Amino acid sequence: MTGDEDRQRPMIEVTDLVKNYGSLAALRGVSLGVAKGEVVVLIGPSGCGKSTLLRCVHLLEEPTSGTIRVGAQQISFGGSGPALAGRKLAAYRSRIGMVFQHFELFPHMTALENVMEGPVTVKRMDRRAAAAVGRGLLAKVGLAGKEESYPAQLSGGQAQRVAIARALAMSPEVMLFDEVTSALDPELVGEVLAVMRQLAEDGTTMIVVTHEIAFARDIADHVLIMDAGAIAEHGRADDVLLCPANPRTRAFLSRFHNTGTLRSSG
Amino acid sequence: MHYHWDLAMVLADTDRWLHGIGITLLYSVATVAGGIVIGVFCGLALLSPKRWVTLPLEAYVEIFRCTPLLIQIVWFYYALPIVLNFSLPAWLAAGMGLTLYMGAFCTEIFRAGVMSIGRGQWQAGRAVGMTYAQLMRRIVLPQAVRRMIPPLLNQSITQLKNTALLYVVAVPDLMYTSSIITAETYRPLEVYTSAAAIYFIMLYPLTLFAKRLETRVDR
User: pLDDT category, A1, cuts 50, 70, 90?
Assistant: First the structure.
């Protein structure tokens, strides 16, 4: 493959992804591509399938059918049995960073140990090297000095930034953010969004599920609006968020316009 | 009522008392250890999604939890030989009953401990690329074991008292020894009071320790 093709071909490509829970269709054939360094934001009403899509990309859930390609690795679903299992599945996941709504820090480890855990246990990195990486990442998310704190001693915003550092420690090819500010007190949302904004400016490839529409408009290269398990609308952030074509999308977004969220972001 | 206490007389045979205490402690430690080993393996196996693995284990746990320990011991001693066509020595029959009984409770404690670790922790471990074994060793077990210790300690306290049932198959533990000394001295008041006091002295520190652990786990 030539370098030119490499740049044009999306780094992540999801094709016709379907996820059924019994008779409930959570995803009805979703396709999307994310280029290297691109920030894609998924928004939509709750239950529309955006979190399911992230979890499927990470293979925390096994898609029912469709394909996912990350870099050179293409995985097809729908055969008999899981597409990946055991060490291959773990290796796949280690290339993708995930940040959860409820942080899910390891409570029996300090902030630094949380960040070191992936590199040491999964990548077999030397502990001292991992500690150096960990300290660097904690500093990057603004938590220098909190290395020895346990998760219970951190505020929600601090815990979520540790969780971001923990995901970054694996040097993932893409970072997935699943409503990472939804469980935070309003005054703590800003510090987490600031870290994400910095990552976006640094050229991190990101897929972000969020209800922060103003933030989405700020950082997104592309916005996808999901509805009932499918992509209702996609395009450049301003186009989709300011002049949505789909009536259901317009109804969904109008709630945010009414509160003035979009305008105040300027 | 005027009763003349004579503790000196019933406690005179110190060696026999110590032997009884020794047997009680030996059975307690051995059957608790055996029970924990059973609990670790059966508890882990119970997490399997395969019904043919979990069904027999669930049957084992429920049979031993829902029948009296006394019947289990008596059954292994008097009933099993009829099935097997050879008899087990009393110490082994009683030991098996006590161990399998402890094992059933440990299995449940172990399973519940692992299950108490929320889905989110599993997902966070998977998200950094851990295999099942790594996840168990680094994330789930360190947290689960901490939660298992108080119930395990409580079950062990119960287990030590349960060894008194060795009496029915004439294994010379503290309880059986007491009954023998009573028969010889006709002093049930002194003998059984002493025996109760000895059980209490062995267990009271353990209950204090269990309480301290529970408050530490809560933090």
Answer: very low
